[in-house]
Amino acid sequence: MEFEAFLLSLGPSAFIFLVLMFLFTWLSRRPGNVSIYYPNRILKGMDPWEGSSLTRNPFAWIREALTSSEQDVVNLSGVDTAVYFVFLSTVLGIFALSSLLILPILLPLAATDKSIKNSRDVTDTTSKGTFSQLDNLSMANITRKSSRLWAFLGAVYWISLVTYFMLWKAYKHVSTLRARALMSADTIPEQFAILVRDIPSPPNGQTHKEFIDSFFRDIYPETFYRSLVVTENRKKKLARAEAIFAATSNRPTNKTGLLGLAGKKVDSIEYYTDLINESVAKLETEQKKVLAEKQQTAAIVFFTDRVTAALAAQSLHSQMVDTWTVTEAPEPRQILWENLNIKFFTRLIRQYLIYFIVAITILFYMIPIAFVSAITTLANLQKAIPFIKPVVKITFIRTVLESYLPQIALIIFLAMLPKFLMFLSKSEGIPSRSHAVRAASGKYFYFSVLNVFIGVTLAGSLFDNLKALQQKPNSIVTVLATSLPKNATFFLTYVALKFFIGYGLELSRIIPLIIFHLKKKYLYKTEAEVKEAWYPGDLRYATRVPSDMLILTITFCYSVFAPLILVFGVIYFGLGWLILRNQALKVYVPSYESYGRMWPHIHTRILAALFLFQVVMFGYLGVKLFVWATLLVPLIVISLIFGYVCRRKFYSGFQHTALEVACRDLKERPDLEEIFRSFIPHSLSTHKPEDHQFKGAMSRYQDYAAISAA
Fold first, then answer.
1. In whole angstroms, how far apart are CA 263 and each of 254, 260, 269, 273, 541?
2. Taking every annotated instance into account, which residue ranges of this chain make up the domain CSC1/OSCA1-like N-terminal transmembrane (predicted)?
3. Which of 258, 419, 550, 623 has the lowest CB atom count within 10 Å?
């Protein structure tokens, strides 16, 4: 790929981003779109424009994002979102500080080494042997055994030291942020409860509930409150039928047979009302039957104070590991009730089975990714589809295909994975949604690194690499290091596409806007369904964090070899911080709160990316025949030690609630009955605090819709 193709990949992308940004400033000021661009504020009873007029400064969102504090993010989107911004700002700081020293030193050193042009191996290039200007700004332009390689070795140390400093600082900050939130004087229901699983069979004459109560009452006689077992049900069709009747004055009908397509035709409102009345009459009988005959081997146990609950969650309640397993209770809204009854050893077997399935998936998914990466290079594409040769000869089309085709194919392949990985994570028997998100995020990260970064890198010269590995199976590091130069331009373009197109679509929310208006007009009738159409959900950490980690890994691994990528890394994480800050304050609504439990996993994966970078640079300096490459070995060891020290110092505070945190006084005596009721699934509870908030949100939305219609 020649240099102009690389520039072409940036020009249209930047133009599309500007168009999407101006679309956002126009569409977000229209009252009919308020539920798409300001749902977070609507649900919290705030004025979307905070008292300003519809003709406000179109770039005011930038000022609002830059001037917002961390506490603003916590108040509107929770601690988990604030921790995500710590991640973005930490990585931004790493790349910005690294750039200050690396760019002014390494770029001139690479650009002024003139001896390489007559001696360079054509495989040692970022541009497939065309000797483009990109090669002149990379390590590929440095002569083998050159003394200039000392600067590149020093750059690896500089980036590593900056990373250690920023990660240590961030870990301390997140630990403080988490502790401050958990020390809140407000009542947090899950702080008064524990999750108990693997409950043994009760003695004859006792139910599970009686057995659980007696067990914990004996251990905690003064602070035990009660235990809870719940079930769930669902009903929705009656509300839809009534809404159709209200809108059309025609009483809807349906058939009572298979899938509503066969059987007797009846009045829908009367039919569903009769069914519900029958269900209500049977509900108490069914609940008693469940409690008496189908009680599960898991329960939520409540205490009268936070300290006892924290102590109980960290204590060993049985000599046998597979009985009376006790952990901190998750937030009520994120409990995966269907997983609580899965036995201890069944969970272990499932976990290892899922790991095996993920490993097999990574292995076999690498085949199509490697194939697509190999075939979507223009030369290979012309061999596979000969009739496109006349079209490809047109300069503009050729450069567009070279710039976009491989990256778009890769993005499409990655879009197929998230739901599958989330399904696998939940199948492990994980008890909470946030835990499942962390597990899915980890799988997606390793999948991305192994399949996308390493897979695409090796696939760039697929057959040559296979031949090299067959001759020397232990030469994977050397092969990876040798393959890096050939894919520098590919990954530069990939990062640019991610921040221009990806963040442009994120800010403009064009796709959610179109889907909302189509659903509202043609599909949805009830208020609940309209809310479902515009409800934005959360930041989707299960896919967003691994995607960011892939960019982090790419930027790390190319930061010394092709320093120009640091500029792209700074733009990606800087633009991401700005745009997602706006989205967090106005759009996304957190679906759970884990108080930063994701951070230790984020920290570990940043270190994993750093470790891979150090290993790859060790290999590439070896390819350059630089004998002092062995000086990187101590740095690799330091990274492992740093990770170990951080885990020993900080991780326990994320795994459990520290007693010094739990002992803080509350501003008022907790309502234990209210805490108990908060864990009852909404389908079984007559106490639904969300209903009031929902009706208020709908009334506010309808006010803005009326303004738009007028």
1. 9, 8, 17, 18, 46
2. 5-169
3. 258
